[in-house]
From TrEMBL:
Pfam families: DEAD, Helicase_C, HRDC, RecQ_Zn_bind, RQC. Transmembrane segments: none annotated. GO terms for molecular function: 3'-5' DNA helicase activity; ATP binding; DNA binding; four-way junction helicase activity; hydrolase activity; metal ion binding. It is an enzyme of class 5 (isomerase). It comes from Bifidobacterium gallicum DSM 20093 = LMG 11596. The keyword Phosphoprotein does not apply. Belongs to the helicase family. RecQ subfamily. Residues 223-382 form the Helicase C-terminal domain. GO terms for cellular component: bacterial nucleoid; cytoplasm; replisome. This is DNA helicase RecQ.
Length: 545
């Protein structure tokens, strides 16, 4: 510890302890603020170097730094890495016996530990609180701080106790809230709910210009073949394939190995939260050491894994939010080299994701009203994800606009695409579907916002099905208005309108199509609506730039 340490001391420590020549964007400002006792909100993409931002102050400030992290499974790695860098670190979690925990507390109180990693739940235990009131706590670093907000993905009610914990300490430490994913709304929540005092806010660039973004709509039955084709043409590369379920990871890894592995050496290994810790460690190690080039994983894989030469990330299914997608896709190309992020999706993913909206696991502290907010927020996140799949504008701009919370839809691409994306490459065809969208909107009005999408489509196509006849739909002005359009196309436009906010599809077993917040725009004379129709699927998957 250096009394009244300055940024020059931090700089020296960056060289000597970490071996880096200079700070990365954002780091210097954050460290300066913390050393001066100012709270921090740091929003930096994965891989930008958030840990250094609190590890250096931890070494330079008096007392102990508490790192609150939800990732119990990674604590050991984080602690090992810190110790390797010469920072005395330890964790307290449920994997330890009470005696082991007592030893860590004792070391922290004796000043032998500078960094103490804990899960948020731990802060609420009386034992930890008794320790905390006796301990000289200089800094509380909250990792994955977006978990405190119901407007972000990954909301965890245990994060709501962190602000209270900090406020209960006899002497208020400086607080650093760090996250890779926070829209403006989430940022405001972090400041409010963690009780940050006039924080120094740093948001570093979200555009990862070495990543090429690709979106491909593909039926489930064709996804494995596409992936195998991609792996075959990129046999020298390492990458991650993300699947939605544990079962899929195993099946896909087996299919890939059956198709591609020679001499019994697997090309791909499955990884998911249902595997025991040892098996997971082995798979992870083989991937990091380049022994197994491809990992087929659920979203349990990746947090804290520091492998720089991941050349591609393929999503076998659409994730629940842009945050989740960007966090996972962002594991490609941490070394700055060109890398490719491909998202495979289809309408089945949308249906599955909508169904899952109601099943948040972490809601025991919430009132019905608060649950409604969570639900609305999740819908919004999902709609924006679907929008990403369907947009015809630059995918880089879509993502950065999202994190800046600008208007995405109005943000037609006028600027050159950084890093490249399939839309800017002109590999997609789009068509003007304004007339179809207008007809759908009128039909929703005609039926009084009371029926589901199947019926809307049948009415517009002039179906003679019994349920349509029985409801007297023939007399509606929009009956058979789109008789010449394919059913799939009308359905597609309807779904896109729902993700763009022109319509709302209610949840539940019998979803109803209603007007969304932008519905009125569809009757404006200059209403113009475009939809991505086909994507030019090349025979062989392209190389990573
Ligand atoms: P994050 O938590 O933001 O995802 P990490 O803290 O894990 O990122 O850092 C990502 C990688 O960048 C690590 O290997 C880290 O050691 C490295 N790193 C951090 N700061 C610097 C720096 N100033 N110069 C070079 N490498 C750095």
């Amino acid at each position: 510890m250096i009394p009244d340490a300055t940024i020059d001391d931090a700089q020296r420590m960056l060289h000597t302890t970490f071996g880096y020549p200079s700070f990365r964007p954002g780091q210097q400002g954050i460290i300066t603020a913390l050393l001066q006792g100012q709270d921090v909100l740091g929003v930096m993409p994965t891989g930008a170097g958030k840990s250094v931002c609190y590890q250096i102050p931890a070494m330079l400030l008096h007392g102990v730094t508490i790192v609150v992290s939800p990732l119990i499974s990674l604590m050991r790695d984080q602690v090992d890495a810190a110790n390797d860098n010469g920072i005395p670190a330890a964790f307290i979690n449920t994997s330890q016996t009470p005696d082991e925990q007592a030893l860590v507390f004792q070391q922290a109180l004796a000043g032998q530990i500078k960094l103490l990693y804990v899960a948020p739940e731990r802060l609420e235990t009386s034992r930890f609180q008794a320790f905390a009131t006796r301990c000289d706590i200089a800094l509380v670093a909250v990792d994955e701080a977006h978990c405190v907000s119901q407007w972000g993905q990954d909301f965890r009610s245990s994060y709501l106790g962190i602000g209270e914990f900090i406020a209960s300490l006899p002497s208020r430490p400086v607080v650093a809230a760090m996250t890779a994913t926070a829209t403006q709304r989430v940022r405001a929540d972090i400041v409010r709910l963690l009780g940050l005092h006039d924080p120094h806010v740093t948001v570093t660039g979200f555009d990862r210009t070495n990543l090429y973004f690709d979106v491909l709509r593909l039926a489930n039955k064709d996804k494995a073949a596409w992936i195998i084709d991609y792996l075959r043409t990129h046999a020298d590369q390492s990458g991650i394939v993300y699947c939605a379920t544990r079962k899929e990871t195993q099946q896909l890894a087996d299919t890939i190995n059956a198709a591609l592995s020679t001499s019994g050496k697997p090309v791909a290994a499955a990884y998911h939260g249902g595997m025991d810790g040892q098996a997971r460690d082995e798979v992870q190690r083989a991937f990091v050491n380049d022994a197994t080039p491809v990992i087929v994983a659920t979203n349990a894989f990746g947090m804290g894994i520091d492998k720089s030469n991941v050349r591609f990330v393929i999503h076998h299914n659409m994730p629940e939010s842009i945050e989740a997608y960007y966090q996972e896709a962002g594991r490609a190309g941490r070394d700055g080299e060109p890398s490719r992020c491909t998202l495979l999706w289809n309408d089945g993913d949308v249906v599955t994701r909508r169904r899952l909206l109601d099943t948040g696991p972490d809601n025991e502290r919430l009132s019905a009203e608060e649950m409604d907010v969570v639900h609305t927020a999740k819908r919004h996140l999902l709609d924006t994800m679907i929008g990403y799949c369907r947009t015809v504008t630059c995918l880089h701009r879509y993502i950065t606009a999202y994190f800046g919370e600008n208007s995405i839809i109005a943000d037609e691409g006028t600027q050159a695409c950084q890093g490249g994306c399939v839309n800017c490459d002109g590999d997609v065809h789009s068509s003007d579907v304004s007339a179809i969208a207008r007809a759908i909107s009128r039909c929703v009005h005609d039926v009084g916002q009371r029926v589901g999408s199947g019926k809307i489509v049948r009415i517009l196509r002039g179906s003679q099905a019994q349920d349509i006849v029985q409801m007297g739909a023939q007399s509606l002005p929009t009956f058979a208005m789109l008789a010449d359009k394919p059913e799939a196309m009308i359905r597609d436009v309807l779904n896109q309108m729902a993700s763009d906010g022109y319509l709302t599809i209610t949840d539940g077993r019998l979803p109803i199509v209603m007007f969304g917040p932008k519905a009125a725009q569809t009757v404006a004379p200059d209403f113009h609506y475009v939809m991505k129709t086909t994507r030019v699927v090349r025979k062989a998957a392209p190389s990573a730039n």
